[in-house]
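Session log. Operator J.P. requested a structure for one protein chain; no other inputs attached. Running the standard single-chain path with token output.
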Amino acid sequence: MSKAPQQQVGTPSASSFDLKLPYAIALFTAGAVALVLVARNTDGWLPYGSLWQLAFFLLYGLFTIQIGYMSRAGHVSFDRIAQVASILTMGPVPAAWVNGLASLLWPLQRLREGKPLREVLCACLHNSGLMTLMILGCGQLYVLLSGPLPLTVLDARTAGLLLVLIVSMQLVNEFLMAVYLRLKDRAFRWTLHDFPLVMETGAALAGVLVAIIINRMELPVIALALTVLALAMIALNQFARMRNRLEALVEDRTLVLRDKMRELEELAAKDQLTGLVNRRFADVTLFQCIEAFNRSQREFTIALIDLDHFKSINDRYSHETGDEVLRRVARILASGCREKEVLARYGGEEFLICFPDKGVAAAAQICEALRHAVQAADWSEVAPDIRVSLSAGVAGMQAGLTRSTLLKSADARLYKAKHAGRNCVVAS
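Structure written below.
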């Protein structure tokens, strides 16, 4: 079993093709040249097999590629069976060009699916070059280590050589595919996918079994064994497709649940009336800022803001009017705060602002600007003759203070602002 590159619908970018197509051409050319050179310097093009075996493995290679499935790594097929079996039956050279031809022909069927000719040509050349080099190189390694050809018996030494053959084929396939996918996707990282890897290993072992059967058994036994194996491949194909569908379903459900959890977290952290963060979120922020202050002594200031005479607004106009006042005040305050400053609705008509990295004087200046903005706003659209103002108490973090004592310090200054006639900011 091996992986072929997954083709995307649409036309890839020019820069992507500029890298992939030359690589595919170079890989195909390298495979063809290596095949000719090895054939001239060894026992020729068909040292162990016969013409009917060539025809059989060409058709069998196409069949094992076709009985595949799409995974995240691309098209995963069972052609490792045909590759290993052909090496152990005919030798590396005929196995390389027969499987290379099968890999060259198979992507052509994508033209019927409407895939661009250039994209299909790239896949043909790449797949054929990859398979030719992999089978030829790993097969020659097996021969150089004195691996028996054709394979008819299995002993401990031969089993070790077959393990070398299977592992080397897997590594070469994965490496050359990683290069191709790296050109296709610049962020690609070489990773081995567990399920396809297990199936590919099983396919390679099945290829050893097929080779022994072909080299030792009579034609009826060979036909029966190949029929049983074909049915097993079809069953595994259906299982893999079902597994992919289940994985996709689980992934979709996980994304939906993650989005729902994010929405719930946002709802839990937000005040529904004003859209600001709520008291719970503000208390967590206070705790974090105090911890940061205790570690690094970085300045940190808070301000408690309270709307003046808000109860009379509710009593005189209505609670709906009061709610609209709160929403508009929240927007005014938010427009005057930086992104790193946390603005929260801390109580009924009370707001809290956390000023990281700001001292009391700078925070008080911002609060004064906010007070002026609220007072100067046009409130006539909310209710006739309505007046809205705020009072604020500003307190800076000091060594030894806790969340509770820091809030008490700001609340004490807010109390001073109220008793000073309201509509003012007190920072000392």
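Operator note: The chain has two domains: 3-257, 279-426.
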